[in-house]
Specification:
By secondary structure, the protein is mainly alpha-helical. The relative contact order is 0.21. It starts with a strand and ends in a 14-residue tail after the last helix. The longest helix is centred in the last third of the chain and has 27 residues. The strands form 2 sheets. Strands 1-4-5 form a 3-stranded mixed β-sheet. A two-stranded antiparallel sheet has the order 2-3. The protein has one domain. Strand 4 and strand 5 form a beta hairpin. Helix 2 packs across helix 3 and helix 4 packs parallel to helix 19.
């Protein structure tokens, strides 16, 4: 996809993103694809259907990325955000993932689900959206008249020194290649990607119940393909200038040499890199976009995807006649969503993504940080559900400490001799 002007290439980039996002929103709404719901089904009912759908999306995207990257048709190494960066921020992945998992449980869904619920008429999710937007924005952007961000004030001094600098990119292929001192990273990435995906597919489809679930199969396949389509599109938009092909980000870096003026120049070049879907940082971008009076220079893949997913969900809710206005049941319901939104805002930025951003997009690159975040999100959500369940069943008898310890015993993280409450 080669264009003769930067404006045309950027327009195609944003419009294609919007169309793909609408499809994503409609399919997620139609199939009830929900990562928080997947964890809830596992913990509360022993039903792994939606979890397998989540894994199917990961496997589908991973297969596509592995093959296309080997063919040099997709670039996930220089992506935004930098999933494969050689600095492993494992503490942020763990803490951010756990906070996000807890937050999405309190707020009835992750960042993507928040957008889906808004499109379906859920006013509670508008509150969640606003809180996430403000926190996510100021986690990376300085406060007014200041050079400080929420991240620099609350996290930088103690988490940054704990990061591990690797001699290679942090994806499994690059790490194993470095360990073997070979020069075959692209082949290793292909072999490992296909092997991991094959293992997932075996686990997914060995369940007869899943094989008969059309919505779960449809959701997993289409969402995985949507992630892959975004990777492919964002990796292959080029501008021809001075008889040379430039990527969008490459053109941006040479703007002063190639462009006649600053008209149409985006606010930043990072967001022009190859990328796929993630939602917490883009929700934060919407706050900046509104704050800066809808400056077109701030339009990005992420920002457009937020609007596209909401619209896709809204359209399907009309088609499926599921659109309905929902409000808080009581003050406790309000407080749960309020706290959950705060935790998702902090956790999603810290962990460099959400259940879609790290849990599918990042996982498709086989980045170690994405794998850590994926596990941490599941742990945070499952632990919270377990605690909530024991608090409901035992009421006053179950203190937080007792419920927490018992939850860890249920999750096989503590010996059964430490159990404080009888299993239910």
């Amino acid at each position: 996809m080669i264009f003769e002007s930067f404006a045309d290439s950027l327009s195609f980039f944003l419009w294609s993103t919007f169309i793909i996002s609408v499809v994503l929103g409609a399919v997620v709404n139609k199939t009830n694809f929900c990562t928080m719901g997947a964890v809830s089904d596992m913990v509360n009912m022993g039903d792994y259907g939606r979890f397998r759908a989540w894994l199917l999306a990961i496997a589908t995207a991973t297969i596509g990325v592995s093959i296309l990257e080997y063919m040099e048709l997709v670039n996930t190494t220089d992506a935004f955000p930098p999933y494969r960066a050689n600095q492993l921020i494992y503490i942020e992945n763990i803490i951010g993932g756990i906070l996000f998992g807890i937050g999405m449980t309190f707020a009835s869904g992750c960042g993507n689900k928040t957008l889906i619920r808004i499109g379906g008429g859920n006013i509670k999710s508008i509150l969640v959206f606003i809180i996430i937007a403000i926190i996510a924005y100021y986690m990376t952007a300085p406060f007014p008249n200041s050079d400080k961000t929420l991240y620099s004030v609350l996290f930088y001094d103690w988490v940054n020194p704990l990061a591990i600098s690797l001699d290679s990119n942090q994806d499994l292929g690059a790490i194993i290649n470095e360990f073997n001192a070979s020069d075959n990273t692209s082949s290793l990435r292909l072999i490992i990607g296909l092997s991991v995906a094959a293992g997932m597919l075996f686990y997914i489809f060995k369940a007869a119940e899943f094989r008969s679930s059309k919505d779960n199969i449809l959701g997993g396949l289409v969402i995985g393909l949507v992630i892959l389509t975004a990777w492919y599109t964002s990796s292959n938009i080029n501008v021809i200038a001075d008889d040379t092909n430039y990527s969008l980000s490459g053109y941006y870096e040479e703007w002063d040499m190639l462009a006649e003026s600053d008209e149409g120049k985006p606010a930043t070049g990072r967001t022009l890199s190859s990328q796929s879907f993630t939602f917490i940082n883009p929700i934060g971008q919407t706050f900046g976009y509104i704050k800066d009076k809808f400056d077109p220079a701030l339009l990005t893949f992420g920002l457009i995807s937020v609007f596209g997913v909401i619209l896709g969900s809204f359209l399907w809710s009309l088609i499926g006649r599921s659109f309905r206005i929902e409000w808080f049941v009581d003050f406790k319901d309000f407080l749960n969503h309020f706290v959950g939104a705060i935790l998702m805002g902090f956790g999603g930025v810290l962990a460099l993504g959400c259940t879609i951003g790290q849990g599918i997009t990042g996982m498709s690159t086989l980045a170690l940080g994405s794998i850590i975040t994926f596990v941490a999100i599941i742990f945070g959500s499952a632990m919270t559900m377990k605690i909530q369940y024991y608090k409901i069943v035992y009421e006053d008898e179950a203190s937080f400490t007792k419920a927490f310890i018992t939850a860890l015993v249920d999750m096989k993280l503590l010996p059964s001799s430490m159990r404080k409450l009888d299993a239910v």
